[in-house]
Automatic annotation (TrEMBL):
Lineage: Bacteria, Pseudomonadati, Pseudomonadota, Betaproteobacteria, Burkholderiales
Organism encoding this protein: Ramlibacter aquaticus
Protein name (Swiss-Prot/TrEMBL): MBL fold metallo-hydrolase
TM region positions: none
Ranges where the Metallo-beta-lactamase domain occurs: 118-155
Length: 371
């Protein structure tokens, strides 16, 4: 890793040194091959929204094509309320016969908000079977270490964290309002995970989690979609902090800071009995259509029951947004449930193109799939 002053100077002078074009020309096999996976079938799935970027107390219970949303009505101290913040954290509960599984996907921006909402929503960390991180952005892992500090002793001794790949551990920086200036955006630290007795599993290829869910692995990029401008990523490691890119990038990329392509962002998916795929994209930087197609290819299941989560279309230009929503419509999902970074512009366009398939949620809500 470069020092803070060197990093600042490097960013000012060379962060756009060919940018995505340089990155694309140097990365062999950017599109991952979809590996065939024997995916499990669950009878039921429930998603509890622990943290999202909005909280609407007036959102009413809704049902769309068999998918039900119920807002939370926390009981207890009236002086406490659910909090929302920029980020996402989801509690996933599934049932397969008599077997139950609970997974946690992403951890919001701050441990304080996450802990507050978990307490008010009454989720029990002792029931967790696995942890999942979607990608290396702080608004998805910021609450993780605080969560572990608070609840580690309640978790299984052999607790695993499923990460999309080595890229999840790269250092990232973000642009500021001042042109040419950048700010630190954090690094997911595997040393801190190890210190808390967490085993990291790099799911760069598709993997089954706990006999109920599966991950997409590295996502093929074959749609019209593109990574919209956001963070920059630094490839390198120092004293165990950062990412070892040597096994998936050419040597020339070591030490480079370039526009972020989210090489190992992955999605968490379920095959719900008699319904089809539920594809959960925490941010979808690599494209929500690409993500769903990857889930279909990995599982061999064509039917898409629901597309859930962040689609990163908030910053999308209108003409591009119209195109992407049209491509989503072609996937014929029963339900589309936007969260986090999807954007109000996406909600408006989805209402225009596929109004019968849109389901809104909010922090604290519970979404159920299956009989």
């Amino acid at each position: 890793m470069v020092g803070s002053n060197a990093r600042r100077n490097f960013l000012k002078t060379s962060c756009c040194l060919g940018g995505a074009a340089l990155f694309g020309s140097l990365v062999p096999g950017r599109s991952a091959s979809a590996a065939s996976l024997d995916v499990p079938v669950v009878d039921k799935l429930a998603i509890k929204v622990l943290v999202d970027s909005s909280f609407d107390i007036f959102l009413r219970p809704t049902q769309v094509h068999g998918v039900a949303f119920a807002p939370s009505r926390p009981q207890g101290d009236y002086r406490r309320s659910l909090h929302n913040e920029w980020g996402l954290s989801l509690w996933l509960e599934s049932q397969r016969g008599s077997e139950m599984r609970s997974f946690m996907l992403d951890y919001g921006y701050t441990p304080e908000v996450l802990a507050n909402n978990m307490e008010l929503l009454g989720v029990d960390p002792a029931r967790l079977d696995a942890l999942i991180i979607s990608h290396g952005h702080f608004d998805h892992f910021g609450g993780l270490m605080g969560f572990l500090d608070r609840y580690r002793d309640k978790l299984p001794a052999d607790m695993k964290l499923y990460a999309g790949g080595e890229d999840n551990f790269c250092h990232r920086v973000a642009r500021t309002a001042t042109p040419g200036q950048f700010t630190d955006f954090g690094t997911l630290d595997r040393r801190e995970l190890a210190a808390r007795r967490i085993t990291t599993v790099l799911a760069e290829t598709p993997a089954v989690i706990g006999g109920h869910a599966f991950t997409t692995g590295r996502i093929q990029r074959n749609s019209i979609e593109k990574v919209l401008p956001q963070t920059l990523v630094e490839f390198g490691m120092k004293d165990g902090l950062g990412c070892d890119s040597s096994h998936y990038l050419p040597a020339e990329m070591a030490g480079k800071i370039v526009p972020d392509e989210h090489i190992h962002e992955h999605a968490t998916c379920y095959h719900v009995k008699d319904r089809g795929l539920v594809v959960i994209s925490s941010c979808g930087h690599v494209g929500i259509v690409n993500t769903v197609r990857q889930a279909q290819a990995v599982s061999g299941v064509e039917k898409v029951h629901a597309i859930v989560g962040g689609f990163h279309l908030g910053p999308a230009p209108q003409d591009y947004l119209v195109q992407v929503v049209a491509e989503i419509r072609k996937l014929q999902p029963d339900v589309v449930i936007p969260m986090h970074c999807s954007g109000l512009n996406f909600v408006q366009e989805a209402r225009a193109q596929m109004p019968g398939n849109l389901l809104l949620s909010t922090t604290g809500g519970r979404i159920t799939f299956g009989a």
